[in-house]
Amino acid sequence: MLNAADNDFENLLLQHLPAEVLRPVEPRYAEEPRGYHKGLVGILALPRTVDEVATLLRCANEARVGVIPYGGGTGLVAGQVIPDGPAPLVLSLERMNAVRAVYPDENVIVVEAGVILADVQAAAREVDRLFPLSLAAEGSARIGGNLGTNAGGTGVLRYGNTRDLCLGLEAVLPDGQIWHGLTRLRKNNTGYDLRNLLIGAEGTLGVITAAALKLFPQPESTGTAIMVVPSPRAALDLLSLGRSQVGEGISAFELMNGQGFDFLTETLPDVRQPFDTPPDWCVLIELGLNGGLDAAEVLENLFVAGMEAGLVSDGLIAQSEQQAAEFWTVREQLPQANRMIGSVSSHDISIPLRALPDFIEDGLAKVAAIGEFRVNCFGHVGDGNLHYNVFPPKGRSRNDYVDEREALQRAIHDLVHEVGGSFSAEHGVGRLKVDDLERYGDPAKLFAMRAIKTALDPRGIMNPGAVLRLPPQ
Amino acid sequence: MLNAADNDFENLLLQHLPAEVLRPVEPRYAEEPRGYHKGLVGILALPRTVDEVATLLRCANEARVGVIPYGGGTGLVAGQVIPDGPAPLVLSLERMNAVRAVYPDENVIVVEAGVILADVQAAAREVDRLFPLSLAAEGSARIGGNLGTNAGGTGVLRYGNTRDLCLGLEAVLPDGQIWHGLTRLRKNNTGYDLRNLLIGAEGTLGVITAAALKLFPQPESTGTAIMVVPSPRAALDLLSLGRSQVGEGISAFELMNGQGFDFLTETLPDVRQPFDTPPDWCVLIELGLNGGLDAAEVLENLFVAGMEAGLVSDGLIAQSEQQAAEFWTVREQLPQANRMIGSVSSHDISIPLRALPDFIEDGLAKVAAIGEFRVNCFGHVGDGNLHYNVFPPKGRSRNDYVDEREALQRAIHDLVHEVGGSFSAEHGVGRLKVDDLERYGDPAKLFAMRAIKTALDPRGIMNPGAVLRLPPQ
Predict the structure, then answer these.
(1) ipTM attached to this prediction
(2) Per-residue pLDDT tens over the stretch A149-162
(3) Beta partners for B221?
(4) Where would I find the H helices in B248-353?
(5) Boundaries of each FAD-binding PCMH-type domain copy (chains A, B) (predicted)?
(6) A247 to B184: CB separation less than 8 angstroms, yes or no
């Protein structure tokens, strides 16, 4: 069993660390963005160096105190809040927020875990490079949290997940050992892939303190369009058509639907919508091209070819950066509108592309069989990643449907599992999906995960209760 | 301690498996391609299904018999041969050589571990897709071995290592549990990254039996050129220039030097060389472009811009597929020429790009301080990956320099370590570099590796002696 981060533990920490590493507990460290879950905070530590992180973990390990590595607090699966049990040490990386080095000629940036994602993007832009990780919470999410959760976002189609953007890590193991793995190398076959094991482990195997990240050339010409498509299947065919025309040049390909536009009208009327009558389905496409190609012209060609093939019925190509930004605002405000409507059940799922159009249909039928709901299904369709969210009928509140929530989740996740999809595409497991992982996860993989967790964190201090449910040590 | 794969063990296997899974031992399974190292083979098994693999491992684990997962046998670090100790079970995947499925619309292919790499490439081409993993041994290397060693090759610059090309795995854990992880999903954040842990573990954590791999659009227009550069630094500057012009369009960027051309002249005079007088340094560039761009034209522009910037002094742009193939033959025959000359010491290293030009200079000085040698330094310079090979002076044999080998290796690897490089960029650790890993590896990472190995393979049956030296169980 773990012990609480109490006065005795605080005294232990103060024997080994300067007092200014600890801070009075503030409520925001006990909250998650949707406000559904509250967490316990015994002690709040804000270390400034990897050595201080190492000391904190060594002490926590010795005292058997649970530790929550804390980034920007924007996670959506309650990985950052412990609802009950012994109060943990919350270890926020926010003061480790230095850009340690930028190597434009190597397309590498080295940042500490506490750097805000938007600041990583800005530091790359300053040297005429692109850091392509991009997501709605980028103004407050910190890169350590993005790494810990292997964050996704809109750039995955072209540039991959956070995992794919990382070359090296500095991290502290649960017993306080520091791994100095901040390599900038693209090729390094010297042993097990500890980097990818820590990435996406959601803080359960150690604390990431810094990372060497890949940068990319800024595309010379970017273009943004919204195209109306008759169906999700047509959206995928349009993606294939686009890829055959421009190869890797498609930077984003986002599906939106009429329900989402209605929600925007209802909750955020100031958001300027692209069409007077919201289409049932449309895609937001962004291209980033080099080699002297003109992105607007290529989009025009894709639009014409799409019309000819019956894949596109209407569309707008942004004529200015401002208009492109407006298109993106529509996409990025969808989650906020959803939140204001209040979902009964929300799902961050991925589906093999081939099965995706049928899944959307079948999912609607499953939901309708449970009751009268509104579904907003949108997202990173090029990756097969849908945000599939179920809402009460107009005029009713999510609180009226508490009893249906479990049936909805089960029906949708069962269907996802049936077609070879994932019940968590990009948000992770956290605490909200531990049951799903036990239900749908491969038994051999779960066995291996538990063996690894026990081997690296035998006392179970790291983010206890997240990802895996372990027998008491 | 492990037991030998002897008659008793064979009898155990025959209780659980059909007799045709076992085969009489053939000498080739005890050899590696350069012929420097010989291995022991107790029993040879050629399973046909993942269930047979699982049974083999379950029996081996029960009987504490070592197992070598065997692919095409082309590895260069003796990961596939056990020189001494109890004779192992050699488990060759060669009969698991089915392409299980191709999903061109999803850009995914699912293959069994025993499929030869060239056959994966061919299956992709058949559906107008590209599987970009490409290396000299592709005609005999098997994809399971490529995955086990996280193989590199010439396509890494654009498409990444084997690791980056894999979406999902089917694998057998050391105790015989089967992990059914053949997902085709691009996004799947449901627990620890077991996939990347097995990839590059060189068969020490389990046996990969099948993989879901990424495919890519075939570039519409490809072009190949050889450009003479005044120095490695100029080569890297030319790469930067090229990237600013064509973004991700550079598919390969290979450095070659005069010594390599001399070796070709000496050993393989039939290979048609591009220049009458071999240049000191040149680069082989391949572009693969879409969006209506003409690769030959873009290469022409790059050549002109390179000349103007003083980065290029001469060059040839292939005027036909045949000529492009001739350029590649030169590059691909370099290892064979090296083998025929016979290196005293050879190094598969990677260096941060910024430090690479100085490293080449400093390395020559270190080598010269030990004795009179010839150095052939070439390779995937865009990734910072050099094959840095040291040869005896003309007319002498490698056997005359056995005593210098260790000093050379130490001097070069020390220098690599000093500048933040890797002593094994793409070949892996195998058995030849276990000492290097102990010397240069990060202690916390080694600790974590040993903990993981012990957790997943407590009896130490999987490829014993490769990668890690463990205390006897």
Answers:
(1) 0.96
(2) 999 998 999 999 99
(3) B289
(4) 258-267, 295-308, 321-341
(5) 29-218
(6) no
